[in-house]
Amino acid sequence: METPLPDTTTFHNESAVGKQISLSLQITFGITYGIIAIITLVGNLLVLIAVLKFQRLQIPTNYFVCSLAFADVTVAILVLPLSLIYDLTGGEWWFGWVFCYFWRSCDVMCCTASILHLCCISLDRYWAITKPFAYTMKMSKGRVACMIITVWFCSVCISFIPFYLGWFTDDPDTLYTDTGKCDLTVNKIYAVLSAMTSFYIPFIVMVFSYAAILRIAKIQANAIKKSIPRHSYTGGGGPEKYESAASDRKALRTLGIIMGVFIVSWLPFFLMYIIMPFCSECEISPLAISVITWLGYGNSCMNPVIYAFMNRDFRLAFKKLLTCSVS
């Protein structure tokens, strides 16, 4: 999701990243951004193939992971290559107004869908842990499908519709100009609505969901610790309880990684996103904008690592796929 800026601080060719930094640094950024795009594509394609190929992985939670991977694959194919070219050519747009609108719309849609899927996964885990019996009965394939459809519907409503109807800005002609630019300038209303939908509301939901999961995990860990006889600490008895405690600690680490990566990836971008339209005097260098934007894109690169590679069943599936030992 490239950064929308107020009218007084839009990108211009002479100040864009590709014309602001040295050639060596430009090459470094190009290679780094290219690696992010490739890893995003390959990692998420592996997730999609694994879920489609192995029946063991076809469970409600993994349908969210699969749709998340599809969103991130779309980011890798439709958004990142054009973002890379636009950054490294000094903000020169070579592809006309049709692709300009399409690229910007895909950018907002795919990044929004990716974040909303993370929100759905947090809710899925919350329901599974807080209401395990009701979860197994109510979290059907149909309900999961409805949630996924809702995610994509909201993502389209916050991207393609406002863009093609001109609601995102006070002057729709500022998105694409004949001077070869595809700069995005949004009005304050769209900035607030899109930021709330794409990040702040999902972020709040994720914080509350994982905080509740963390609280329950601590209660369970304390209960297990109290139920272990003292002589067990010296090596006698209770191996199942030790395994359960270790599993709880692993779950807590996983939750920390999930929220840590998400916050580091997206919070800088959406702070900048929501502040810039309201602060015409605020200045931030195009280089910083580029790094912050690609930090957000990097979340699509990390998602398969967090939600799939850290899962034993997914790792086994990836091993079979990569060694061509699929039965």
Can you offer a commentary on this structure?
It contains ten helices and two strands. The chain has a two-stranded antiparallel sheet with strand order 1-2. α1 crosses α10. It has a single domain, classed as Rhodopsin 7-helix transmembrane proteins (Rhopdopsin 7-helix transmembrane proteins), CATH 1.20.1070. The protein is mainly α and 327 residues long. It is 72% helix and 1% strand.
Total strands: the figure is 2
Element-by-element helix/strand order: HHHHHHEEHHHH
CATH fold naming: Rhopdopsin 7-helix transmembrane proteins
- Classified by CATH, the class is Mainly Alpha
Estimate percent helicity: over 70%
Poorly predicted runs are 3-15
Per CATH, the superfamily is Rhodopsin 7-helix transmembrane proteins
Number of domains: 1
Shape: globular
Distance between the termini: 40 Å
